[in-house]
Amino acid sequence: MKDASPQTIYLADYQPPAFLIDGVHLTFRLSPKATRVISRIRFRPNPDATDTTFTLHGQDLKLVNAQIDGADVSPTLTDNGLTCDVPDAPFVWDAEVEIAPDGNTALEGLYMSGGMYCTQCEAEGFRKITYYPDRPDVMAVFTVRIESDMPVMLSNGNPVGSGAGWAEWHDSWPKPAYLFALVAGDLVATSGSFTTMNGDDVALNIYVRPRPDEAKCDFALDALIRSMKWDEKVYGRAYDLDIFNIVAVDDFNMGAMENKGLNIFNSSCVLASPTTSTDADYERIEAIIAHEYFHNWTGNRVTCRDWFQLCLKEGLTVYRDQQFTADMRSAPVKRIDDALDLRAYQFREDAGPLAHPVRPASFVEINNFYTATVYEKGAELIGMLKLLVGDDPYAKAVTLYFDRHDGQAATIEDWLAAFADTTGRDLTQFALWYAQAGTPEITVTDQFDNGTYTLTLRQSLRDTDDMADKQPMHIPVAAGLLASSGAEVVPTTVLELTEVEQSFTFDNLTEKPIPSLLRGFSAPVIIKRQQTADERLFLLAHDTDPFNKWEAGRQFASDMLVGMVRDDAAPDARYLTALTGLITDKALDPAYRALMLALPSQDDTARALADAGHAPEPQKIYLVHESLRYAMAEHMQDRLPQIYAAMHVAGPYSPDAKDAGQRSLGNAMLGLMTRLDGGKQASAQFAQADNMTQQMSALRALVAQGHGADALAAFRTQWAQDRLVMDKWFGLQAVLASPEHAVATVNMLTQDADFNWKNPNRFRAVLGGFAANAAGFHAADGSGYALLADWLIRLDPVNPQTTARMAKAFETWPRYAPDRQAKMKAALQRIAHTPELSRDTAEMVARMLKG
Ligand code: TRP
Ligand code: ZN
Questions:
Q1: Active-site residue numbers?
Q2: What angle do helix axes 279-294 and 657-677 make, rounded to 10 degrees?
Q3: What is the model's pTM?
Q4: Which of 547, 649, 730, 744 has the most CB atoms at less than 10 Å from its CB?
Q5: What is the total count of domains within the chain?
Q6: pLDDT value of position 538
Q7: Under a CB-based contact definition with an 8 Å cutoff, are residues 253 and 184 in contact?
Q8: What is the DSSP-derived secondary structure letter of residue 464?
Q9: What's the pLDDT at 370?
Q10: Does some domain include residue 359?
Q11: Do the strands 188-195 and 243-249 form a parallel or antiparallel pair, or are they unpaired?
Q12: Domain assignment present for 625
């Protein structure tokens, strides 16, 4: 390993910075192999500092020269930067460094993608650009001069001058280095404008490479304008510069980045057109545009004191983008989608060796903590706070938070103080949500006596590597009660569970009610309750809460799948009959009906089996899922063509929620029909499709049933020139390959001339798709584990961040039987013992092996 004992950073060790910055001027002389970065930084001793040594972060930099107040100095270079003797008074630091963006495959710092220069600085990439105090609590006003022969040169803030071969930008809002950005390339803009609620005009640009990308920017621009309006209307937050730029790049480690005034996006998260993007792509693009835009206030104007506070900006910004999507589309459908995601990724994380609190107490590599826990569970904490304090107090508290901390680097304590001060509530116990890892479990018992119904809730939280004997948390459990007639006798009430065990009573009832618990998924917890199949079917039919109505069907399906795997039980006809009734229920939104049909994933079933004390067998789970789907198709076969036809959307394509919902129900029908008709209808749809949703759904149905060869070939011929569509082609095959063929299919895909493995999107399509192919990845002989480990070992020196993230495919090892565990751990050990392994991947596999 490169780092024999990589250093662990602790939240408890936080120290204020020794020096603050009064202004930064950067000049970039761009050149692929030798870019010069000339910095002038005005430092001033921080009166609040205890440690006063002058240190700057720096990584992979060639220092050309340095001066303090104009006099040459010779700093001491260290492992991660430099130190230098400096005056105990304000001084000017000048330095020139050389860097090589062309060889930067890690995609951190300044790098090149598709012939353009771009940057990615969060979390700690700025130190690969120049020597600097690269920590979020050092905020400064930046002026940037770019020199190159590229036609477009962009940085943060407003443009202040340009000429032949140069451009200058000034950002008057103090910001941490992680929000710095620079782009230079041969780009074209799709432009618009926006007038803020304060009457300020803002120029909007989406920059992409010319043809064919320039034709795919209109939707992103529209989503941006809707986001700007929404943030004004709902949060009272206006934009604060003359210009807002977005740039699309092909090589990017994540979705997008909120750099001040210059958001940089993975091209997959901005480019949209009806023929190349699915409805799901459109929804995702809209959400990510909103997310990055919303960061302007939650992240940029108020930033984080240190990286332990990451959820302060990410949890809140995810919560805001979820609210936005709920407003733009269907709120119940969005809530179900978010719960599905939370359970698929965050509950899975919480259940395994990578469990960590929403605000971790320590880390080795911060890039490893951009997780579902920090983001999605972090967002759930905001939602719980809002539910506990109420909508108006929530709005007041957030306004107070902005008023108090605008221009500052804040903490979770600051955030909670704004709520405590607004509402007078004591949030000490609520704060445990930020510190205690794991998904709380609530067991429920109930009793009915003389007209009084008593619900007793008991909470528990498992020990994790970092903490044992956890304290009870403050959990809002939204509950309603139904009578046997189906009438609601007690409407939704929030029960505040704060003790380990607590009882709640409801009086004046004429019969024992049926409880509907955790309505709207009011807390990120697992409800453990012995519930009869009849009760679930009752709630599926009668619950007035759309989330819990769906949840009842989901739980029914989950239990049934467990029974089918464990006891070879047959599919339950009552479930099939109930589903058939629901999908034909015209009172329900088609998107919601489609969600009703979506079974738990194979990974969900594996987790449910493990929870029930039964080691999962992925191949068996696969077969059981297949047989249940087949049973659904048979049971519903008379209705399928009719609903399929009724869901047909005529007229020009629109990605709106209504049309997308119809297509999703129609395509759910198509998936089932393809199990019975040998692919007839899907082939017809594939041939006729005039948008990617219809084309892709048909292709998926065909490939899933083994009828996909011709369609795959035709698809490739049609889309060979479109890299984003080709990612779909690669990904679909990896994820849908049948268990026996998955390893061979992935080996074939990785030998394809178009498998550009250094591009994260393409790598993720194939290897991420494979990891999501549960029965293929978990091949009994361990060949799937070996295949992924080989590729991770190969990618690590090229791109540590993406490697470490994808290594999480192994996080579920503890749930399997010993022989499979041994194979998974052997693959992890092999990665761990790779010479020169990156700090990112080393930390990730070490944490997994420890669990
Ligand atoms: N802050 C970004 C967001 O939430 C995500 C991000 C963090 C990121 N680190 C990154 C994006 C590295 C790309 C590369 O939107
Ligand atoms: Zn974010």
A1: 292
A2: 140
A3: 0.98
A4: 730
A5: 4
A6: 98
A7: no
A8: B
A9: 98
A10: yes
A11: unpaired
A12: no
